[in-house]
Amino acid sequence: MPDRRWTVMLVPHGEGGSRSVSISVTVLKLLAGVATIVVATVLAAAVGVVSHTVDLSKASRVERENRVLSSQLTRLGDRVEALSDTLALISRRDEEVRLVAGLEPLDAQVRRAGIGGPAGDWPEREQLVSEGGETGRQALRVHLDLDALLRRATLISTSFREASESLASHVQRLSATPSIMPTTGFLTSNFSGLRYHPILHIGRPHEGIDITAPYGTPIIAPAGGRVVSVGWRAGFGLAVELDHGYGVRTIYAHMSRTAAAVGQSVRRGERLGFVGSTGLSTGPHLHYEVHVDGRAVDPLRYVMPSAIAD
After folding, report:
1. In this structure, what are the phi and psi dihedrals at residue 176, rounded to the nearest 5 degrees?
2. For a tag on the chain, would you pick the N or C end, based on fewer CB atoms within 10 A?
3. Domains of the chain by range and CATH?
4. What is the DSSP annotation of 142-194?
5. Could you tell me which residues come within 8 angstroms of residue 308 by beta carbon, excluding any fewer than 6 positions away?
Protein backbone atom coordinates (compact mmCIF):
# COMPACT_ATOMS: atom_id res chain seq x y z
CA MET A 1 0.00 0.00 0.00
CA PRO A 2 1.53 3.36 -1.02
CA ASP A 3 2.53 5.65 1.86
CA ARG A 4 0.00 8.41 2.42
CA ARG A 5 1.29 11.93 2.16
CA TRP A 6 0.29 15.38 3.38
CA THR A 7 0.78 18.48 1.28
CA VAL A 8 1.17 21.86 2.91
CA MET A 9 0.67 24.99 0.78
CA LEU A 10 2.72 28.05 1.62
CA VAL A 11 1.03 31.19 0.20
CA PRO A 12 2.84 34.51 0.72
CA HIS A 13 0.87 37.67 1.57
CA GLY A 14 2.88 39.77 -0.82
CA GLU A 15 4.40 39.12 -4.20
CA GLY A 16 5.91 35.81 -5.07
CA GLY A 17 4.63 32.41 -5.99
CA SER A 18 3.09 29.81 -3.73
CA ARG A 19 5.06 26.82 -2.58
CA SER A 20 3.97 23.37 -1.50
CA VAL A 21 5.64 20.91 0.86
CA SER A 22 4.73 17.27 0.74
CA ILE A 23 5.35 15.16 3.87
CA SER A 24 4.56 11.52 4.28
CA VAL A 25 2.60 10.23 7.27
CA THR A 26 5.61 8.20 8.39
CA VAL A 27 7.76 11.32 8.60
CA LEU A 28 5.03 13.14 10.54
CA LYS A 29 4.85 10.32 13.03
CA LEU A 30 8.61 10.35 13.38
CA LEU A 31 8.64 14.10 13.98
CA ALA A 32 5.79 13.81 16.52
CA GLY A 33 7.71 11.08 18.36
CA VAL A 34 10.87 13.17 18.47
CA ALA A 35 8.89 16.17 19.70
CA THR A 36 7.27 14.05 22.40
CA ILE A 37 10.66 12.77 23.57
CA VAL A 38 12.09 16.30 23.63
CA VAL A 39 9.12 17.64 25.59
CA ALA A 40 9.31 14.72 28.05
CA THR A 41 13.02 15.26 28.50
CA VAL A 42 12.52 18.97 29.13
CA LEU A 43 9.73 18.27 31.60
CA ALA A 44 11.83 15.64 33.42
CA ALA A 45 14.72 18.06 33.62
CA ALA A 46 12.43 20.77 34.93
CA VAL A 47 10.98 18.42 37.56
CA GLY A 48 14.49 17.39 38.56
CA VAL A 49 15.59 21.00 38.89
CA VAL A 50 12.49 21.87 40.95
CA SER A 51 12.92 18.76 43.12
CA HIS A 52 16.59 19.54 43.66
CA THR A 53 15.70 23.12 44.55
CA VAL A 54 13.07 21.86 47.03
CA ASP A 55 15.57 19.41 48.54
CA LEU A 56 18.14 22.14 48.92
CA SER A 57 15.55 24.42 50.54
CA LYS A 58 14.44 21.63 52.89
CA ALA A 59 18.04 20.76 53.77
CA SER A 60 18.76 24.43 54.42
CA ARG A 61 15.68 24.69 56.65
CA VAL A 62 16.63 21.52 58.55
CA GLU A 63 20.16 22.85 58.99
CA ARG A 64 18.82 26.13 60.38
CA GLU A 65 16.50 24.23 62.73
CA ASN A 66 19.39 22.06 63.89
CA ARG A 67 21.48 25.16 64.59
CA VAL A 68 18.62 26.68 66.61
CA LEU A 69 18.07 23.41 68.52
CA SER A 70 21.79 23.06 69.17
CA SER A 71 21.92 26.62 70.48
CA GLN A 72 18.95 26.01 72.76
CA LEU A 73 20.45 22.74 74.00
CA THR A 74 23.66 24.57 74.82
CA ARG A 75 21.74 27.21 76.79
CA LEU A 76 19.70 24.49 78.50
CA GLY A 77 22.92 22.67 79.39
CA ASP A 78 24.29 25.86 80.95
CA ARG A 79 21.14 26.24 83.04
CA VAL A 80 21.31 22.60 84.11
CA GLU A 81 24.89 23.18 85.21
CA ALA A 82 23.84 26.24 87.22
CA LEU A 83 21.01 24.25 88.79
CA SER A 84 23.49 21.50 89.64
CA ASP A 85 25.65 24.03 91.50
CA THR A 86 22.57 25.29 93.36
CA LEU A 87 21.59 21.76 94.37
CA ALA A 88 25.15 21.13 95.57
CA LEU A 89 24.86 24.20 97.83
CA ILE A 90 21.45 23.05 99.09
CA SER A 91 22.91 19.61 99.73
CA ARG A 92 25.62 21.12 101.95
CA ARG A 93 22.98 23.13 103.82
CA ASP A 94 20.99 19.92 104.21
CA GLU A 95 23.94 18.30 105.96
CA GLU A 96 24.15 21.24 108.37
CA VAL A 97 20.40 21.16 109.07
CA ARG A 98 20.56 17.42 109.75
CA LEU A 99 23.27 18.03 112.35
CA VAL A 100 21.18 20.74 114.03
CA ALA A 101 18.18 18.39 113.97
CA GLY A 102 20.20 15.69 115.69
CA LEU A 103 20.28 13.41 112.64
CA GLU A 104 23.22 11.53 111.20
CA PRO A 105 24.56 12.83 107.86
CA LEU A 106 23.36 10.90 104.83
CA ASP A 107 25.56 7.97 103.94
CA ALA A 108 28.06 8.80 101.21
CA GLN A 109 26.84 5.88 99.10
CA VAL A 110 23.26 7.19 99.36
CA ARG A 111 24.37 10.63 98.16
CA ARG A 112 26.31 9.07 95.28
CA ALA A 113 23.18 7.16 94.28
CA GLY A 114 21.49 10.52 93.90
CA ILE A 115 24.28 11.87 91.69
CA GLY A 116 25.32 8.88 89.54
CA GLY A 117 24.20 7.67 86.11
CA PRO A 118 20.61 7.14 84.95
CA ALA A 119 18.54 4.40 86.47
CA GLY A 120 16.46 1.98 84.39
CA ASP A 121 16.22 1.44 80.63
CA TRP A 122 16.06 4.27 78.16
CA PRO A 123 15.50 2.94 74.59
CA GLU A 124 15.92 6.35 72.95
CA ARG A 125 19.52 6.55 74.13
CA GLU A 126 20.95 4.36 71.36
CA GLN A 127 18.80 6.10 68.75
CA LEU A 128 20.07 9.51 69.80
CA VAL A 129 23.66 8.30 69.63
CA SER A 130 23.37 6.43 66.30
CA GLU A 131 20.95 8.68 64.42
CA GLY A 132 20.91 12.04 66.16
CA GLY A 133 24.38 13.18 65.23
CA GLU A 134 26.04 15.85 67.33
CA THR A 135 22.67 17.40 68.28
CA GLY A 136 21.41 14.00 69.44
CA ARG A 137 24.50 13.43 71.56
CA GLN A 138 24.10 16.90 73.02
CA ALA A 139 20.45 16.14 73.83
CA LEU A 140 21.57 12.87 75.46
CA ARG A 141 24.00 14.72 77.75
CA VAL A 142 21.31 17.19 78.81
CA HIS A 143 18.87 14.34 79.44
CA LEU A 144 21.37 12.49 81.62
CA ASP A 145 22.14 15.66 83.59
CA LEU A 146 18.44 16.36 84.14
CA ASP A 147 17.88 12.77 85.23
CA ALA A 148 20.66 13.09 87.82
CA LEU A 149 19.29 16.44 89.03
CA LEU A 150 15.82 14.97 89.53
CA ARG A 151 17.25 12.15 91.66
CA ARG A 152 19.32 14.59 93.71
CA ALA A 153 16.32 16.87 94.22
CA THR A 154 14.21 13.92 95.38
CA LEU A 155 16.95 12.81 97.77
CA ILE A 156 17.37 16.30 99.25
CA SER A 157 13.60 16.75 99.53
CA THR A 158 13.29 13.52 101.52
CA SER A 159 16.23 14.49 103.73
CA PHE A 160 14.83 17.98 104.40
CA ARG A 161 11.43 16.52 105.30
CA GLU A 162 13.07 14.17 107.80
CA ALA A 163 15.15 17.01 109.25
CA SER A 164 12.08 19.28 109.45
CA GLU A 165 10.13 16.68 111.40
CA SER A 166 13.08 16.15 113.74
CA LEU A 167 13.53 19.91 114.24
CA ALA A 168 9.83 20.33 115.00
CA SER A 169 10.14 17.65 117.66
CA HIS A 170 13.24 19.35 119.10
CA VAL A 171 11.57 22.77 119.11
CA GLN A 172 8.54 21.36 120.89
CA ARG A 173 10.72 19.68 123.48
CA LEU A 174 12.86 22.79 123.96
CA SER A 175 9.76 24.91 124.52
CA ALA A 176 8.74 22.46 127.26
CA THR A 177 12.18 22.34 128.90
CA PRO A 178 12.69 24.73 131.88
CA SER A 179 15.49 27.12 131.02
CA ILE A 180 15.09 30.35 133.02
CA MET A 181 14.71 31.43 136.64
CA PRO A 182 11.01 31.61 137.55
CA THR A 183 11.51 34.88 139.47
CA THR A 184 14.07 37.61 140.15
CA GLY A 185 15.91 37.67 143.44
CA PHE A 186 18.82 36.15 145.33
CA LEU A 187 19.62 32.45 145.55
CA THR A 188 19.67 31.75 149.28
CA SER A 189 19.52 27.96 149.44
CA ASN A 190 20.76 25.34 147.00
CA PHE A 191 19.51 21.88 146.08
CA SER A 192 20.85 19.43 148.66
CA GLY A 193 20.50 15.83 149.74
CA LEU A 194 20.57 16.94 153.37
CA ARG A 195 19.98 20.40 154.80
CA TYR A 196 19.33 21.73 158.30
CA HIS A 197 15.76 23.01 158.23
CA PRO A 198 15.58 26.56 159.71
CA ILE A 199 12.13 25.97 161.25
CA LEU A 200 11.99 22.26 162.05
CA HIS A 201 15.65 22.28 163.20
CA ILE A 202 16.31 18.86 161.74
CA GLY A 203 18.33 17.60 158.80
CA ARG A 204 16.24 16.77 155.74
CA PRO A 205 16.66 16.79 151.96
CA HIS A 206 16.14 20.10 150.19
CA GLU A 207 14.74 19.07 146.82
CA GLY A 208 14.78 22.50 145.25
CA ILE A 209 16.28 25.96 145.46
CA ASP A 210 15.14 29.01 147.43
CA ILE A 211 15.07 32.41 145.73
CA THR A 212 14.59 35.32 148.13
CA ALA A 213 12.61 38.19 146.58
CA PRO A 214 10.37 41.04 147.73
CA TYR A 215 6.82 40.13 148.66
CA GLY A 216 4.59 40.16 145.54
CA THR A 217 7.39 39.67 142.99
CA PRO A 218 5.91 37.94 139.92
CA ILE A 219 6.60 34.23 139.40
CA ILE A 220 6.67 33.08 135.77
CA ALA A 221 6.73 29.72 134.00
CA PRO A 222 10.29 28.73 132.98
CA ALA A 223 8.85 26.64 130.11
CA GLY A 224 5.61 25.74 128.42
CA GLY A 225 3.36 23.31 130.25
CA ARG A 226 -0.04 22.54 131.72
CA VAL A 227 -1.16 23.52 135.23
CA VAL A 228 -1.96 20.32 137.15
CA SER A 229 -2.21 21.65 140.70
CA VAL A 230 -3.11 24.97 142.34
CA GLY A 231 -3.71 25.40 146.08
CA TRP A 232 -2.46 24.74 149.57
CA ARG A 233 0.11 21.98 150.12
CA ALA A 234 1.56 20.85 153.42
CA GLY A 235 4.82 22.68 154.11
CA PHE A 236 4.68 24.43 150.72
CA GLY A 237 1.81 26.74 151.56
CA LEU A 238 0.15 28.15 148.44
CA ALA A 239 1.73 26.34 145.48
CA VAL A 240 1.39 25.69 141.74
CA GLU A 241 2.59 22.59 139.86
CA LEU A 242 3.20 22.38 136.11
CA ASP A 243 3.47 19.31 133.89
CA HIS A 244 5.80 20.09 130.96
CA GLY A 245 5.58 16.69 129.31
CA TYR A 246 8.56 14.46 128.57
CA GLY A 247 8.52 13.41 132.23
CA VAL A 248 9.31 16.94 133.55
CA ARG A 249 7.29 18.64 136.33
CA THR A 250 7.99 21.84 138.28
CA ILE A 251 6.67 23.10 141.66
CA TYR A 252 6.45 26.74 142.89
CA ALA A 253 5.83 27.10 146.65
CA HIS A 254 5.22 29.72 149.37
CA MET A 255 3.23 32.00 147.02
CA SER A 256 1.26 34.96 148.36
CA ARG A 257 -1.37 34.37 145.63
CA THR A 258 -1.69 32.45 142.39
CA ALA A 259 -2.43 33.59 138.84
CA ALA A 260 -3.12 30.24 137.16
CA ALA A 261 -5.92 27.68 137.08
CA VAL A 262 -5.84 23.89 136.89
CA GLY A 263 -5.93 22.70 133.29
CA GLN A 264 -4.56 25.96 131.93
CA SER A 265 -1.81 25.77 129.30
CA VAL A 266 0.99 28.27 129.83
CA ARG A 267 3.99 29.30 127.79
CA ARG A 268 7.46 30.24 128.96
CA GLY A 269 7.32 33.66 130.64
CA GLU A 270 3.59 33.61 131.53
CA ARG A 271 2.68 34.54 135.09
CA LEU A 272 1.87 31.78 137.60
CA GLY A 273 1.61 33.81 140.82
CA PHE A 274 3.49 36.05 143.23
CA VAL A 275 6.23 35.58 145.84
CA GLY A 276 4.98 35.18 149.42
CA SER A 277 5.78 33.45 152.68
CA THR A 278 3.01 30.88 153.13
CA GLY A 279 3.64 27.44 154.62
CA LEU A 280 6.86 26.64 156.44
CA SER A 281 8.74 29.81 155.57
CA THR A 282 10.89 32.31 157.43
CA GLY A 283 10.33 35.14 154.95
CA PRO A 284 9.18 35.96 151.42
CA HIS A 285 10.86 33.68 148.91
CA LEU A 286 10.12 31.15 146.18
CA HIS A 287 10.87 27.48 146.69
CA TYR A 288 11.36 26.03 143.19
CA GLU A 289 11.60 22.30 142.39
CA VAL A 290 12.19 20.35 139.17
CA HIS A 291 11.23 16.67 138.94
CA VAL A 292 12.29 14.42 136.05
CA ASP A 293 10.58 11.05 135.78
CA GLY A 294 9.39 11.38 139.37
CA ARG A 295 12.83 12.21 140.83
CA ALA A 296 13.87 15.63 142.14
CA VAL A 297 16.88 17.14 140.34
CA ASP A 298 18.86 20.33 140.83
CA PRO A 299 16.82 23.17 139.21
CA LEU A 300 20.03 25.04 138.42
CA ARG A 301 20.72 22.39 135.79
CA TYR A 302 17.68 23.84 134.00
CA VAL A 303 18.74 27.47 134.11
CA MET A 304 20.48 28.40 130.87
CA PRO A 305 22.89 31.34 130.48
CA SER A 306 20.18 33.02 128.39
CA ALA A 307 16.54 32.16 127.83
CA ILE A 308 15.54 29.77 125.10
CA ALA A 309 12.95 31.61 123.04
CA ASP A 310 9.75 29.83 122.06
Report:
1. -100, 5
2. N
3. 1-175 (no CATH), 186-302 (2.70.70.10)
4. HHHHHHHHHHHHHHHHHHHHHHHHHHHHHHHHHHTS--S-SS-SEEEE--EEE
5. 174, 175, 177, 179, 180, 268
